[in-house]
Protein 1
Amino acid sequence: MLSIKSFEFNPIQENTYLLFNEQGGCAIIDPGCYYENERKQLKAFIEDKKLTPRYLINTHCHLDHVFGNKFVADTWNLPLHLHETEKQVLNFAPKSAEMYGLSFENYSGAMNYLNEGDIIKLGEDELTVLLTPGHSPASLSFYCEKDGFLISGDVLFSGSIGRTDLPGGDFATLENSIKTKLYTLPDETKVYPGHGRGTSIGFEKKNNPFVREE
Ligand SMILES: [Zn+2]
């Protein structure tokens, strides 16, 4: 079974997720750690639980989701997993940091590309990769069928959806992603978004003010 630990990191208050199982395997999704104390917090949790990070994954590459990529890659010697089309967004991250007036060193190591339908294996546990563009050109969501949860990045939030005014964003595309890829999951699926508190597919289908089930 996959356990989920979330951290709220960086000035943009992004949710970093650690998924881990009884065997100690661990996936780090969207490490947003920016401050030294945030990097320490992440490392301390991993060491306390005696976890072995096996994957560094980005749902998408907006600055707030990639602040800690280099730290995680260097600390645990991991390549970055992302959708190939997100590379352009990652390349823009230093410029974005400059605009925010934040210091940033981008990840520049090996990249492993993920695609719709890929399975990420962590021992006995599996995450299915869903391609859910619209907030960014190739946002990915990660679905764990066995444990009934979804890591939704900035695609679907509790009572909201990702903004579509950034480069590569598009409302119709986002709406289609949510309706065809996310709202088709079981109602009881727990949703862990990139910002704010968690929700469920069933709740958002009925109550989300931006995209509702027809
Ligand atoms: Zn974003």
Note: Residues 87-100 form the longest helix (14 residues).
Protein 2
Amino acid sequence: MVATGRRAALDELGLEHVDLRPTDGWLAHDSTMRTAHHDIFVAGDATGRFQILHLANQEGTVAGHNAAGGEPSKRMDYRLKMNVIFTDPPYASVGMTSRELEADVAQGRHVVASSVRLPQTGRAITMGAEHGLWKLFADGKTGEVLGSAIVGPRADDLIHLISTLMYYRAAVSDISQMPWYHPTLAEVMLNLERELADLMPGLEKAPPPPA
Ligand SMILES: Cc1cc2nc3c(=O)[nH]c(=O)nc-3n(C[C@H](O)[C@H](O)[C@H](O)COP(=O)(O)OP(=O)(O)OC[C@H]3O[C@@H](n4cnc5c(N)ncnc54)[C@H](O)[C@@H]3O)c2cc1C
């Protein structure tokens, strides 16, 4: 159904009476979710952007706040946008994508990336996982976690570890300060951190996992 595409049901709302013309079936808006009409706000699928529930909820909160004249006004921030594809194994990502990072690097930003093959890690071995890769991206100067992509067992849940770190604008070095139960898929975060620390001299390195 995602591949086929969906359109918002805007036809019968009488938008033409307020001179609001959808572009390609979607309503253009600014970061406060205000449309071209000063008093009309939009959220969710009608924005034509991501068509994902958690972003529709976030946009709805921003639109509702601003429509009610809330001060200061809120702006939509897509920094924590997540994507999950419920394949087997699942795929999940949050924050910047590899492609966005490449574009940033091309413009001179110092971004570092690490990746770990899940079948080579403890818990994945006990689960018999044959496939899986976890990537982590961070700002090479500040160490701030910028994004992640995972394909492998429980990727849909594991990605929330990264979105939590990103919500609090945590740095890669914070990962090594936190406890991680062994053996879990989550503790792979330590492997990812160690690889990034090698690329960012000065960051504290996580101790190696037990043999
Ligand atoms: C089959 C399917 C599976 C999905 N799976 C996922 C998923 O796994 N994860 C995920 O994040 N997202 C998923 N989505 C997408 C997600 O459901 C939508 O992005 C999200 O619901 C958009 O929220 P919304 O408020 O814009 O629209 P909706 O949730 O569709 O709400 C719009 C509401 O407006 C009502 N309405 C429409 N026209 C009028 C009218 N003229 N007057 C009054 N009421 C009206 C509708 O009845 C509906 O209740 C899926 C969507 C589909 C169709």
Note: DSSP finds six helices and five strands in the chain.
